[in-house]
Design brief:
It is globular and about 55 Å long. The protein has ten helices and eleven strands. By secondary structure, it is an alpha/beta fold. The model has no long low-confidence stretch (mean pLDDT about 90). The N and C termini lie far apart (about 40 Å).
Length: about 290
């Protein structure tokens, strides 16, 4: 049975869905970024993979924050944790936020405004990438070594089908997409958000909001980048298996328009693009 989304004085409820795993000191920064939002009607759904390590901190420090907290008790994996958060959420709109990422204060407000004005079912902003090095593990602290924007990409599904340019926390989507087309596929160990965006994009266009509204964190060290790249490549096998099953019907005119865009991007900016790819793969060891 589908849940009826909650509305407060004609202001849609937004459920921010946080996956976490035994690191309350990391989760704290993500929760602080939700507290700082200018949007007045937010519910936070926190699902912890395994034991309830963060429960005491949440109850003590975030009493004024409307939240649902659940610990799975045993480790179930990031996809199952995300799916449990989706099942608990009560909002009209959903927005994932992993525990080591942050939303800038206007993120929810801007995306809700864009969705309500356009009638679209999904919208995403620009995300800042912050490359960090670990200073200590107990407590877990990091230092930002580099900041930049990797993707300023308007929505073109043909590009999305070759590369995920929508970081998970930058996307907000209507609950009906989840109710109709499901959540994460547990067979996809990593890149599960890319699989979700591709599946949803088969049925709807995404709205691009040309503002930096969030940030995500990646490792700065070359060794960590290469390790992460190898893990992501392994996940591509199950991802490609899913892509075989997704079918899309589009007018030829729309396919033509998107193909022209792709060709123009690679033709006009090809040299710069290939230099960037070379730098990321060979110099930095990234995917």
């Amino acid at each position: 049975m589908e849940k009826e989304p909650k509305v407060k004085a004609n202001i849609p409820l937004v459920s921010v869905l946080i996956r976490t795993c035994q690191r309350p000191e990391v989760l704290r920064a993500a929760l602080d970024s939700v507290v700082s939002q200018t949007y007045p009607n937010i519910q936070v759904v926190i699902v912890e993979d395994g034991l309830n390590a963060a429960q005491e901190m949440i109850e003590k420090e975030y009493r004024g924050l409307p939240y649902i907290y659940k610990a799975t008790g045993k480790r179930v994996g990031r996809c199952e944790v995300g799916n449990q958060a989706l099942a608990l959420a009560e909002g009209k709109y959903f927005n994932f936020l992993d525990d080591d990422d942050s939303l800038f204060p206007d993120h929810v407000q801007r995306l809700v405004n864009a969705l309500e004005a356009s009638g679209k079912k999904a919208a995403y902003g620009i995300a800042e990438e912050r490359q960090v090095s670990t200073v200590s593990y107990k407590p877990h602290t990091t230092k930002i070594k580099r900041k930049f924007v990797r993707y300023r990409q308007p929505f073109h599904r043909l590009l999305l089908y070759t590369e995920n340019y929508i970081p998970i926390q930058s996307m907000m989507f209507h609950r009906s997409l989840y109710e109709q087309f499901g959540g994460f596929d547990p067979k996809v160990v990593l890149l599960e958000d890319w699989d979700l965006w591709v599946r949803y994009s088969v049925h709807t266009d995404f709205l691009y909001v040309n503002r930096i509204t969030s940030c995500y964190h990646t490792p700065y060290s070359r060794k960590e980048k290469r390790r992460r790249s190898k893990e992501l490549k392994k996940s591509l096998v199950s991802l490609q298996q899913n892509f075989k099953d997704y079918q899309i019907m589009l007018p030829v005119e729309k396919i033509q328009r998107e193909m022209r865009y792709v060709i123009r991007e690679y033709k006009d900016k090809g040299a710069i693009r290939y230099l960037r790819i070379f730098f990321r793969l060979v110099i930095l060891g990234e995917r």
